[in-house]
Structures are given as structure tokens and as C-alpha cells.
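Per reviewer request, we include the raw input and output of the structure prediction for the construct analysed in the revised manuscript.
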Amino acid sequence: MMRETRTIMGMAVTIAIPGALANRQDIETVFDQFAAVDNRFSPYKSESELSRFNRGEIEEPSVQMREIFALAEKAKSDTFGYFDIVRPDHVLDPCGIVKGWAIRNAAESLAQIGYEDFFVEAGGDIQTSGQNEEGKEWRIGIRNPFQADEIVKVVYAEETGVATSGTYFQGSHIYNPHAPDQAPKEIVSLTVIGPDILQADCYATAAFAMGRNGIFFIEGLPGFEAYEIDVRGIARMTTGLGRYLTC
């Protein structure tokens, strides 16, 4: 297994490729992609394209920026407005979609190189492909939001995106666009599982913003499942999640 973790985009980014054919230069290429995404979209870097665009210094955004805007608009439509990259102060903040986009692009790059088995993670959101070093499905743990070193569920994922939204790690950073002054309080963790990490990440953010109704939104999405933990520590799951819980 070739596995490496670096801090990029303000979070831990991990790439794992099992087998003797893993090439370090390929991993470097993918890490470089994450770094380029950070340099373009970071709201914390004053000279990033995003920061310059928000200051009105750029009239024509790049192809990548336009792609993110288009994806964000679709996500907003798909989630009835609960996913919105326009903050209450009217500043554009696409971080909620950029991470999943970067993970998906990294996975596509590895697949184009020729890898069938790999694992890409950024900030706890994951895209898997193929099998792990034991020749089995990748195993992904869902953390207990009240005790970070405890795993409450294990998801078996072969070609799967897994994204979690919650307040237990970053605090109250997700808001309801329909009521910006009312932060979601009922749910502390919501994990969404599906074939595509970009969609899973957007849906997890939107569903969390919906509060108690979020899991019903995921229930209605073909191919996606969810596992929710509320403020009392009570868990709920969508009806099809069981297929990811046994190998």
C-alpha cells in the first residue's frame, strides 16, 4: 500500500493506492492538483481567483471557476435552495462544493492513469474505487460526534463517495439559506453515501441545513443513502443504507 497524507486546503488530504504498481509521481501529480485548487478557490488567500473575483478585480472568471458556479447553481436547484454558495453577506463562498469537486477530479485522474483500486480523502470526505490492500471492499468508519475516537458504523464501499456534514468538528459553519439567522440545531452529524463524492458532499450540506427533514430528502434521491445522529445521540438511517453495512 502506498499511502500519504498532506495538509492542503486547510485539511488533511490522503491518497492511498494498494499494490506494487503504485507510482509516487502519480501521487505527487494528484497532490499538485489539490494545491492548485486551493490556490484558485481559497477564500483565505487574498490573491486567489475567488478572493479577487469577490473584490471585483476579475470580470471574466476562469473555466474552472465557471464550472464551479454552474455546478453550484445545479446543486441549489436540486436541493430546493438549501445549497447556496452565496453567504448572507452576499460574498461567494464555494467551499461547500470545491472540496467534493477536487476529490472527484483526483479520483478521475487516478482512473485515467490506469489505477482501479484507490482511496482519496479530503477533510473526512472520501471517494473509493475498487478494493483495498486485502482485496476487499474499502471500510469507512462513521465517527461518534460526541466521542471522536469511537466509530459507530462501518460502511463497506467499493465505488462510493462518502461525505459527512456536522457541527462536531468545525462548529456551526452550516446555515439554512432560507433562514440565515437560524443555524440548524437538531442534527450534529449527517453522512451521505452514494456513487459520486461531489453530489454526496453537496447533498450532505443541504440535508444538514434542512434539519430533521434532511434525511427524508436523501431518502428520495435514487442511489443515495444517509446516516444521521441528532443532538440526543439518536441515530436514523435511510431504508437502503443496509447494503453498505455488510461486506
